[in-house]
């Protein structure tokens, strides 16, 4: 069987058209966000919507919970959908909900989304106090049940402490190196060294605010960055997490950045002039464009085996290590 193609983070406005594009692009698995700031009950409503899609489009998509489901997707010509949270809000203040969410199919959870949470500090806070007492307990519980700790929107100290405290490798599912583009959300060399030394994974993002030159970022620049990261950290710990927000209305940006925590608009990684979604780079508009990234990576001199790993093989191996009980 060929190496799978996996995108380890999307928050698209999903539809049959996007499911068809996944198949046209040969995408075997996608990690989708099912919560930003939702409560537990609101998150369950999002799962209900996905269950209806699974019922209505069984020839295109199905719910994935194990690494074996990626292979099943390849064998059946479908896309396995894996669920994750971009915030810890669905577990509220109840550590018991970690296992319940895992039983519902959640396989990734960020400890925070930009702000301080009950678990850790987000990358937009002025002071990073690291993992909280509850944060350490929740990381241990996530390790126990097989839910991956995701620190994509977390601050430096909190991320380093999560890497150190977790007994299983963690993930930064969608970010880029700070040395390539100094966005506040991108990760330092120190974090990426610690992450990969501990067996963790970095998923490279094509969201324009994370890219050098934004929407004008070239494919060559993006792929040369990945090649440099492979030389620094090892290609085996790298993957793709596009952060694709395809077909989402600009109003969704407000939900992502603001939720319920403020009455004012928080412009996050953009500015007042960039309140909505920025245009995607011309080499990646949707799931049909992964071939561009593969060709760009091969052009950098990375080996075909390394490129196969970055395009999905490394995430597949990580799923096998991270999704089952400890």
Can you describe this structure?
With 326 residues, the protein is α/β, with parallel strands linked by helices. The protein has one domain: Metal-dependent hydrolases (TIM Barrel), CATH 3.20.20.140. It is built from 11 helices and 9 strands. β1, α1 and β2 form a beta-alpha-beta unit. The two termini are 28 Å apart.
Number of strands: 9
CATH class: Alpha Beta
Number of helices: 11
Q: Could you tell me the mean pLDDT?
A: 95
Determine the structural class based on helices, strands and strand pairing: alpha/beta
Sketch the topology as an H/E string, one letter per element.
EHEHEHEHEHEHEHEHEHHH
Count of folded domains = 1
Q: How much helix, percentage-wise, in residues?
A: 25-40%
Profile the largest sheet. 6 strands, parallel
Shape: globular
Uncertain residue segments = none
CATH superfamily: Metal-dependent hydrolases
As a percent range, the share of strand residues is 5-15%
Radius of gyration: 18 Å
CATH topology: TIM Barrel
N-to-C span: 28 Å
What are the SSEs and their pairings?
Layout lengths: L5 E5 L5 H9 L4 E7 L4 H17 L4 E3 L3 H10 L2 E7 L10 H8 L2 E5 L22 H13 L2 E3 L5 H10 L5 E2 L16 H9 L3 E4 L14 H15 L4 E3 L10 H8 L31 H10 L4 H19 L4
Parallel strand pairs: 1-2, 2-4, 3-4, 4-5, 5-6, 7-8, 8-9
Helix pairs in contact: 8-10, 10-11
């Amino acid at each position: 069987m060929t190496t799978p193609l996996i995108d380890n983070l999307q928050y698209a406005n999903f539809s049959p058209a996007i499911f068809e594009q996944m198949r046209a692009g040969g995408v075997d698995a996608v990690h989708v966000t099912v919560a930003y700031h939702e409560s537990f009950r609101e998150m369950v409503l999002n799962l209900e919507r996905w269950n209806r899609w699974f019922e209505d489009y069984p020839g295109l998509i199905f719910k994935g919970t194990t690494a074996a489901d990626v292979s099943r997707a390849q064998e059946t010509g479908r896309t396995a959908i894996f669920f994750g949270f971009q915030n810890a809000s669905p577990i509220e203040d109840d550590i018991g909900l970690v296992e319940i969410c895992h039983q519902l199919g959640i396989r990734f959870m960020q400890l925070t989304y930009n702000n301080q949470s009950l678990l850790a500090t987000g990358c937009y806070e002025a002071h990073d106090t690291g993992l909280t007492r509850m944060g350490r307990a929740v990381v241990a519980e996530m390790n126990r049940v097989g839910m991956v700790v995701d620190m994509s929107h977390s601050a430096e100290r909190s991320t380093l402490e999560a890497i150190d405290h977790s007994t299983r490798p963690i993930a930064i599912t969608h970010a880029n190196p700070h040395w390539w583009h100094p966005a506040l959300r991108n990760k330092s060399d120190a974090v990426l060294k610690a992450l990969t030394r501990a067996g963790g994974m970095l998923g490279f993002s094509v969201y324009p605010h994370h890219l050098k030159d934004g929407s004008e970022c070239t494919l060559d620049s993006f792929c040369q960055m990945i090649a440099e990261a492979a030389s620094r950290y090892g290609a085996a710990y790298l993957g793709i997490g596009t952060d694709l927000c395809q077909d989402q209305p600009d109003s969704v940006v407000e939900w992502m950045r603001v939720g319920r925590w403020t009455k004012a608009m928080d412009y996050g990684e953009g500015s007042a002039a960039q309140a909505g979604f920025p245009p995607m780079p011309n080499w990646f508009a949707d799931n049909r464009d992964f071939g561009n990234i593969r060709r760009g990576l091969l052009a950098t001199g990375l080996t075909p085996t390394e490129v196969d790993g970055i395009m999905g093989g490394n995430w597949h191996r990580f799923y096998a290590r991270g999704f089952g009980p400890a």
